[in-house]
Amino acid sequence: MQWADKFYLYTNRKKRTGGDKTARFFGTLRIIFLKPAAEYAIMGLFSFLTQEIAIDLGTANTLIIHNEQVVVDEPSIVAIDRTTNKIIAVGKKAMMMHEKTHENLKTIRPLKDGVIADFNAAEGMLREMIKLVYPKKPMFPPSWRMVICIPSSITEVEKRAVRDSAEQAGAKEVYMIHEPMAAALGIGIDVEEPTGNMIIDIGGGTTGISVIALAGIVCDQSIRIAGDEFTADIMEAMRRYHSLMIGERTAEQIKIHVGSALKDLDTPPDDIAVNGRDLVTGIPKQIMVSYQEVAEALDKSIFKIEEAILKALESTPPELAADIYRRGLYLTGGGALLRGLDKRISHKIKLPVHVADDPLRAVVRGTGMALKNVSKSTPFLMK
């Protein structure tokens, strides 16, 4: 029996034995104030314990927004002890162990080509990343309302894997938004206008090319050529032209420091010293790598992205194509930081290309904006 009901019985004892007006008065008070007050108190407690976060669950990096701030920005990787099968590190700590592990330790990247490849590792990584939102463990662990962005080409099975991972990691409510839509919101485009906008999101696993209008994706192309493929191209070029074996982390550093889409830049970066193992002698050695070499290594992959953009433009309705001609294309994602990529694409398709401000965080910013509209029935949020 609830405490409000007990109070009602106590105050109405005289009423049942002959009663007086005072008991009836208190009984009325109970109906008007006490029971609703108890219900509001419980509702307030639940709303206090429910926290909202927006997650960009990427192949290369995972970002989390809480209270309109990016609180987690970590590589999407976990380190697992093989003997106990427990996660011992995530994010930057796990990345420092990558390709340096012994037989009792392994590092796993749970996402491949934009979707979950290892369900258990993804669930564990997500749980550990969410713990980073609160560095100090709260007295009452909150229940989470999450908005997670997903590739536009995702299948129902892959979407279910994302939802299940989030629920296993502690989510009570899970909403999803397509990455191109989130990117458009993040760079400040009004997606509900009857105007066409083309978004090219070059992530770690996939490149998504989408035409957006009226809060929906009109047409899109998705190819599995993106940052990871660029890294693989650099590793292959070092092996082929220099007989040098390098790891993923070293190739990533080459991409960041001297990565280029053009062989002729206005402000070229300095050559970078690269260490690796000589395939002929087996002895470690060092070479100098220029941006021209990297541009040549990435040429084929960038050509495939250009072809996908042209294919997307071919399937765009003429009225929206006219809007894109006036407004240009928008580049987001980590791949947008590649030197000269905007100029190369613009030269190929004869349209202006704009690189978003802070393109790495454009998608998670848009996901955070979608999080504010969870209570509204916005067409771009999926339950």
CATH fold naming of the domain at 197-225 and 301-356: Nucleotidyltransferase, domain 5
Please mark out the parts with pLDDT under 50 across 5 or more consecutive residues, or reply none: 6-11, 13-19, 32-46
By helix and strand content, what is the structural category? Answer: alpha+beta
Largest sheet: 5 strands, mixed
The H-level CATH homologous superfamily of the domain at 197-225 and 301-356, spelled out, is ATPase, nucleotide binding domain
Strand order of the largest sheet: 3-2-1-9-10
Radius of gyration: 27 Å
Output mean pLDDT: 87
Assign an overall shape: flat
What top-tier CATH class of the domain at 197-225 and 301-356 fits best? Alpha Beta
Distance between the termini: 36 Å
What is the CATH-assigned architecture of the domain at 197-225 and 301-356?
2-Layer Sandwich
Task: Specify the helix fraction band.
Answer: 40-55%
Number of helices: 13
Counted beta strands: 18
Strand content: 25-35%
Describe the structure.
There is one protein chain. Helix content is 43%, strand content 25%. The chain is α+β, with helices and mostly antiparallel strands and 383 residues long. Among the domains are: 3-43, no CATH class; 197-225 and 301-356, Nucleotidyltransferase, domain 5; 227-298, Alpha-Beta Complex (Actin, Chain A, domain 4), CATH 3.90.640.10. The longest helix is centred in the first third of the chain and has 29 residues, at 21-49. The chain is flat and about 60 Å long. Mean pLDDT is 87; it is low at 6-11, 13-19 and 32-46.
